[in-house]
Every structure is written in C-alpha cells, then in structure tokens.
Amino acid sequence: MTSTNPGLRNQAGARTFFRVAGCVLAPVGIAVCAYGFITFISYDGWDGPPLSSIACFMGGFLLFAVGAMFLNAGFAGVAARYGAGETMPVVKDSASYLSDGRGIMGAGRTVDDGSHAREATAAGPYCRSCGVRNDADARFCDGCGGSLA
Questions:
Q1: Exposure of 142 by Cβ count < 10 A (0-12 exposed, 13-18 middle, 19+ buried)?
Q2: What is the domain range of residue 27?
Q3: What is the pLDDT of residues 62-94, one digit of tens each?
Q4: What are the transmembrane regions (predicted)?
C-alpha cells in the first residue's frame, strides 16, 4: 500500500511564501487604508469627496484582506494541530462517558474486554507505513499488508 501526500509538491516553500506575503501585504494594506481614510476625513472642499481617497481606502482594505488570507493559509496547519490538541482529550473523555468505558470507534476505551488482547501481546516490529505492531515472526503487516522486511 502506497502513501501519497495530499499537499503541494513543495509544501514547506508554499507555507513560507504565504507567511511572508501575508506579513508584507497586511501592514501595507492597513497603511494604505489609513491614508485613504485620513485624506477622506481631512478633505475640506465643497465639490464632494475625492475619489482617490476612497480608492485608497478600498484598495488598502482589499490588500489587508488578501494578506490576512495568506496568513491564514500559511498558519492553517499550526491552527489545526492546536485545535486537535485541545479538543481530542474532551472527545476521548466524552466517548468513554457515553459508552461506559467501551469507547466509540476506538476512542475513549477504558475497559479491557479482551478485544484488543492480540495488540497487547504483539512483540514484533512496528510497520513503517501504518505503525501497527506485529508478531515477532510476521513478514507482512497485520494492519495494512505491507512488507515488514
């Protein structure tokens, strides 16, 4: 069984690009937006507000929004890992509570009913592909069928 990476070919490079571009575009957008707002407020003419200050305000807001989206893309993995680390203990406790210790789909198991006895007695190598521990004399993984050699 082969494992494929669902991400981009150069994931680390793309993440760095999004982080750097977001750190540049967001402050520039805030500055341009502030300049447009200040020139719009300080205009004292009688013939209506200048369109250039409105364009600066809207363009700066657009730059800030694109920079914020780039930052979101660059730090999405960090945010997802943080969220999983915060929520999974609660999910495990909830699954244990709701199922009287038997767990739901493997999460929250606190009662040993013997169904996982084979996993506890396996003393062989771990599979490089899926991480399942196999018997000492096994040549193929019990979990994914991959070669253990």
A1: middle
A2: 11-74
A3: 999 999 999 999 999 888 888 888 888 887 777
A4: 17-38, 50-71
